[in-house]
Amino acid sequence: MKPDFKPKRPLAQYNKALAAISVIALAACSSQPPAPDWALVAESATQKATAAYLQGQQRVEALQWQKARDAVASTGQPALAAKVELMRCAAQVASLEWNDCPAYEALAQDAAQEEQAYARYLQGRSQPADIELLPEAQRAAARQLGNVAGVAPVEIKDPLSSLVAAGVQLRSGRASPALLQQAVDTASAQGWRRPLMAWLLMQLKSEQQAGNSDKAAQLERRLKLLQAPVRN
User: Fold this and answer.
1) Which pLDDT value is given to residue 175?
2) How many Cα atoms occupy the beta-carbon half-sphere of 207 within 13 Å?
3) Cα(34)–Cα(184) distance, rounded to whole angstroms?
4) 94-110 burial by CB neighbour count: b if 16+ within 10 A, else e?
5) Is 188 exposed, middle or buried (0-12, 13-18, 19+ CB in 10 A)?
6) Residues whose CB falls within 8 Å of the CB of residue 131, separated by 6 or more in sequence, listed in order
């Protein structure tokens, strides 16, 4: 996907943790003008909103998402607003909060092909032609969805991208003990309370159904620790 503008000096990719889509690419040559204020505000707010969501800080999350929306709204470009909403949807999929992403759908008709393909992927209805339009981190996972024999979780270095891929696989009916464990380990290592609780609950259900009482009891202790109040 081509960047929407280029600032004066290289910056981190918009919401590097997501790596799933590039809302605004901030890399460029020194001879070009600096990034406009709205883009810098949107970048910062989106990163903070995503982090707050994953950590279960609802008040901060809501405030920062609105700040990001307001920033891109100042451009009058629905395509940019659609990208912001899709990033929020990706974090929700990583946390097993599945919905039809209504805020994105309201803007979908103006979204670029890459975003439309990514939205279908997040909803578990990706098409073969979508794969090359997806962020690179998600392409192997998307290919695996069409391979009945492929049940092992895809190895993705970026933690949030890994959880997004796991969420899509689970949503597509491709659950496995290895997938659940990988997602739990990833969320735990990052201290991401919201996705960790969701994946632990899924893993607990799986262990209970398998009759593994010792493992289930251990998971219940982990969940109890997570249920401590979060201070925003």
Assistant:
1) 82
2) 18
3) 40
4) bbbebeebebbbebeee
5) middle
6) 139, 142, 143
